[in-house]
Amino acid sequence: MKSRFAAIAIGAVSVMALAGCSATAQGDGDGGGDAFAPQDVRMIVPFAAGGGSDVSGRAIASGLEEATGSTVTVENREGGSGAVGYSHFLAQQGNGNYLLAAETALLALPLTTDVGFSYESFTPIMKLGDDYTLVVAPGDSRFDTCTDVVDAAKSDGVVAAVSGTVSLDEVVFTLIEKDQDITFDRVPFEGGSEVIAGLLGGTVEVGSLNPSEVLGQLESGDLKALCALSEERYEYAELADIPTAKEQGIDVAFAQFRGFIAPGGISEEAKQFWIDAAKEFAESEAYTAYIEENLMQANAAYGDEFADYLAENSAALEAVVGK
Q1: Where is the secretion signal located (predicted)?
Q2: What letter does residue 242 receive in the DSSP assignment?
Q3: Which residues are within 8 A (CB) of 221 and not within 5 positions of it... i.e. 6 or more apart?
Q4: What CATH code would you report for 6-27+35-131+256-321?
Q5: Per residue in 11-56, pLDDT tens?
Q6: Where in the chain are all domains bearing CATH 3.40.190.150?
Q7: Which of 269, 258, 314, 298 is nearest to 53 (CA)?
């Protein structure tokens, strides 16, 4: 599955080459000494404002500001299902003043698209936790369960929204297709907020969204949850009544991780600085609030442990969406 955004991503790397050289020359901002001192820190969000990645990036930036006393400015660099933002970030090689709010696209893009990076191109700092998704439909939909969706896909077809061609949505719908021997008609959007608009506007019939993105619409009745693509039912009161896909005979559960990374080639001092700041953030009320408000599963990992998780998760993804 080759993305039509491949040329954009590769072009972005080329255009940013001089910027990357500048960033490398600027280095970690430690003035040549042993101590790393962050300067003009940028948190790149490779998706549009309003979605789960944007919420994650802003929460992390705020938490790191509290932990370090530094200003962390959030930049949304959307396009190419995340490829534009990741390619811009690749050009910051060696610059410890750049961070990126990472998720499944970090692993899926290199497996499905001709981009110039993989997860090994960057420096893993922190995995905050796991974010499962819900399959949702408009409140007046003909579907009440995910079984209804599967049955319809076998007969007259179902139009499904995906927030990018290599997103978590794409992964879970592919897993459902393989498990149930069906095919969805996909309509790609750039982010979760656009998927919600497509559902409410009748452009698509079903979507896969993180609970934090869609809770308001579920509570208002504008949208309804058909199943949760999680191992077990949520313990959060707002979601506890939603059956899992497995309860409905669909053997699919897959979580998107939320975390942040630094560019490749940064100094050990810069890497340790951000890991220490991440651990301080994880002990804060702000971290607990982020996890609970976004209905996630807390499961933090740092540095090399996060890198091991990425390697294992990439191998699992390759079996599903690999080239």
Answers
A1: 1-19
A2: S
A3: 139
A4: 3.40.190.150
A5: 444 443 334 443 333 445 443 446 899 999 999 999 989 888 999 9
A6: 6-27+35-131+256-321
A7: 258
